[in-house]
Amino acid sequence: MIGVNKKGEVWIFAEQHNGQLEETPLELMSKGRHLADTLGVKLAAVVLGDNVKNMVKKLIQYGSDKVYVVENPLLEHYQTNSYTKVIHDLIHKYEPQIVLYGATVTGRDLAPRVASATKAGLTADCTDLQIGNHEISKGNKVYENLLFQVRPAFGGNIIATIINYDRWPQMATVREGVMPMPVPDTKRNGEIIEEQADISQIDLPLEILKEHKQAKKVDLKAERVVVAGGAGVGSKENFQLIWDLANSLGGAAGATRAAVDLGFIDHDHQVGQTGTTVRPSLYIAVGISGAIQHQAGMSDSQKIIAVNNDPEAPIFNVAHYKIIGDLNDVLPKMIKAVKEKI
User: Fold this and answer.
1) Listing from the earlier edge strand, what are the strands of the sheet with 321-324?
2) 199 and 231 belong to one structural domain
């Protein structure tokens, strides 16, 4: 555990694979920028790998004041032990007060190991981060400018706010897509700090012979129109109507976790707390009851149309337009109307 450094920076782990930055750390730059400005400190990105200096410019353009760069051939491929050791050493040297990671496969593997090594706390899968004060009634002590780490709990039935006032750095992983992508500023300048990795071959217990990353079948975050189906669609055959409406609108098909679990569509199309967070211009929810876990991933859509035969469905509480009826009657009419207009 490092000391509580109130002037410590806000750090973002800039995850990269095969020389390409992931989107999640760029998304985190918007929230990181807000946190750093609120605290009056610098926002820094930390990028590890081999030949990764080409990423520095992009990180600065997206909001970073500093970029810590650690290059070493042994860091070419992500391995838990080596990356943990390097980040642990950097944290002890520079004492940031906040370290954020994307809640990706890599982030969920790395963050708890770093937290354990630094004897600090970690909140997983956050959906929001804020700065605030916390008062402890016993002793009337007030801790100022703490990181409020907000995440769903108890199956998404409540929203919990977690704080860490005495074991720093304050660390959290943040779900993909919950933070808006900032607009890059090509005129921004930043500081580059090059560090050495104190690691050897013994820190790499595995030998990676070949790395293969399977691309997602769909990038829901980039879609302007998403038509999503839930368990109420009834069958994989009925789900074809979801595809047809999405295609007619030039959008993508989405789904609830229940629809994915029932085999109507694969996980890449899942929207919600355990899927993708989307903010399309138009979101059409078909046969979706509207559990809070699903709403967490789509409630920020600009316009929401809900189609459901249950007038009491919770999805209607967030919908801008409500259609009460059988999807097998409603969707063919919507598809026809779209095609005739085209």
Assistant:
1) 252-255, 225-229, 282-286, 303-308, 321-324
2) no
Same-domain pairing of 199 and 225: no
Judged against a pLDDT cut of 70, whether residue 7 lies above it is answered with yes
Its pTM stands at 0.81
Round to whole Å and give the CA distance between 217 and 236: 18
Average pLDDT of the chain is 91
325: containing domain: 220-341
Instruction: Judge if 30 and 175 occupy the same domain.
Output: yes
Structure tokens at 215: 């691309």
Burial 263-288 (b: 16+ CB within 10 A, else e): ebbeebbbbbbbbbbbbbebbbbbbb
The answer on 292 and 177 residing in a single domain is no
Q: What is the pLDDT of residues 165-206, one digit of tens each?
A: 888 999 999 988 888 889 999 999 999 999 999 888 888 877
104 SS3 class = coil
* 276 and 310 together in one domain: yes
